[in-house]
Structures are given as C-alpha cells and as structure tokens.
Amino acid sequence: MTATHIVEAGEHLGTIARKFGFENFSVLWDHPNNAALKARRKEPTLLAPGDEVFIPDRVRLVFSRLTDASHDFKVQLDTLKLNLRLLELDGEPRKNARVVVRVEVPETAAATSSSEQELSTDGDGNITLDIAAHADSGTIEIDGVQFPLRIGGLDPIDTDSGVAQRLSNLGYLVLSDEGLDPDDLRTAVEDFQSDNDMKVTGEPADIEAKLEQAHDG
Q: Which residue has the higher pLDDT, 195 or 61?
C-alpha cells in the first residue's frame, strides 16, 4: 500500500527506494505525487530532513514467454555519479594525485566488480565514478590517509545545515560532534565572506550562490 516517508538526516532517494523495495529511485523521483519535491530539490541526492516522499505501491511485472526456449531480459538499474574535488590546505586543487576510493559500485555483467577503485585526480583536483544508487557511505584514501565518505548526506544549499556542511568541506570549522552551533555558523559565514571580498553580514542566505559555486554544488 502507498505511504509517505519523512526524510531523515543522511538519507537520499536511493537509500529510501531500497528501504521500500525499489531497485530504481526514479520510480519515486518521477512519480507525479513527488513532482513538487522534485521541483524544489532538483537532485535526488539533495533532500532535507523533514521532506516528504510519496511511496507508491510496488508493481509486479509479469512476462509471458514460450517454454523450451532461451530468453534474455535486460534490467535498467539507476546509478549515481560520485563527484569529488580534492584541495590543498591553501585551497589550490590537488592535481594528478593517486587516490583509492572504496564504495559499492553498480551491478554489471561483471558481477565481481571490485568496490575498490584506484583513480587519479585531474588538473582541477576532480574525480568522478559511478556508484550504486543506494550507496550511502565509503572511504577515500590519499597519501596513506583514509577519510570517510558520507554519500547523499549533503543537505540543500537553502538550509543552515546545507551551508554549514559546505563550509566544513571547504575547511571552515563549523560542524562538531555536538552538531551545529549558530554562533560557529555565523563566524564561518563571516570568514567566507571576508575571504571572498563580500560584504560581511554573517547571514547564511547571503552566501548561498557564491558558496554553491565554490563547492561545485
């Protein structure tokens, strides 16, 4: 039966679809009852806690084929693209760096595909790879140091938590084990504005466009 799912922190549409037994998150994303959510959030990986996702009934597909014969069936599975950009401490891109990424990859004909991939960043410090639509975590290793990856945990840019996450990713100390402190967020916003020759207001809404550009999303 149909349901409405309330998004929790760290969820994205791929993990929600898997939770309700759907292999493809596009079944939810493209459903007419989720049109308003799709228009507001733009990307299935950028959901905010409290968002509502309509969950339709699952439809069992039935095919009729002749017996005593061989039949091929092709299943289209949604995938996600993981885009990462590595920067030096001074903000310059980490060019042509060897990195090891460990995260679940999409199922293919080569069912034994390794979840560990060795890649090199490009001239702008970027790497891109396909990952399983329901993947929510992994690791990246560079210079022998391993860092955790939270996939799909980024909140929309028009939320305080989304601004704080992007500032933290860019090296501004905002988030801690205790969560988000409004005073820390304001200080980080002021630092970002100062570093980018902007009017210093301390208001998260004032840096959304510039921050999204600096963060590449």
A: 195
